[in-house]
Amino acid sequence: MVETLFVGLAAALLFAELTGLYPGGIIVPAYLACHLDQPGRLAATLAAAFLALGAYKILSGRLLLFGRRRFVILLLLGGVFSQAGALLLPQHVVLPFEARIIGMVIPGLLANTMERQKPLPTLAACATVTVVTWFAVRLIGLL
């Protein structure tokens, strides 16, 4: 897992420098690559990020949220939805797939980048870097 995080950081930084698109935070693709074999967790994490983004949009109509405030609110909202998911879907509930959200910070980081850069470019960049990271780690493992 440590090598995945390092490869993911390098891939995300290189991608952002070459394209100008951020893949949902520099660390997000690395964590997603660690769980690429668990599509339920990926879907739950994306759902939490979109819920955080939606809640932010509602709050931003009533509060002055920009800069650090926006970032902190999105991280907090991502953490709240992550914890809510953990409480609503405890580990002892039998599901046909793993539906736990990846981390408490990952949904907020993803939501923050989607808010700044729009969802489609963010998700496309994140998917690209996640898959590249996953393949690079597998290739390194074969050497």
Overview of this structure, please?
It is a single chain. The protein is mainly alpha-helical. It has one domain. The chain is 73% helix and 0% strand. Helix 1 packs across helix 2.
Brief overview, please?
The chain has 143 residues and is an all-alpha fold.
Relevant terms:
143 residues, globular
Question: What order do the helices and strands come in, and which of them pair?
Answer:
Layout: H1 2-19, H2 28-34, H3 39-60, H4 68-88, H5 106-117, H6 119-142
Helix pairs in contact: 1-2, 1-6, 2-6, 3-4, 3-5, 4-5, 5-6
**Major pleated sheet:** none
Counting H and I runs of at least 4 residues, what is the number of helices?
6
| Content of β-strand | under 5%
The total strand number stands at 0
The helicity comes to: over 70%
- Average the pLDDT over all residues and give the rounded result: 89
The helix/strand class is mainly alpha
Shape type:
globular
Q: What's the domain count?
A: 1
Distance between the termini: 17 Å
Order of helices and strands: HHHHHH
Q: Rg from C-alpha positions?
A: 15 Å
As residue ranges, the low-confidence spans are none
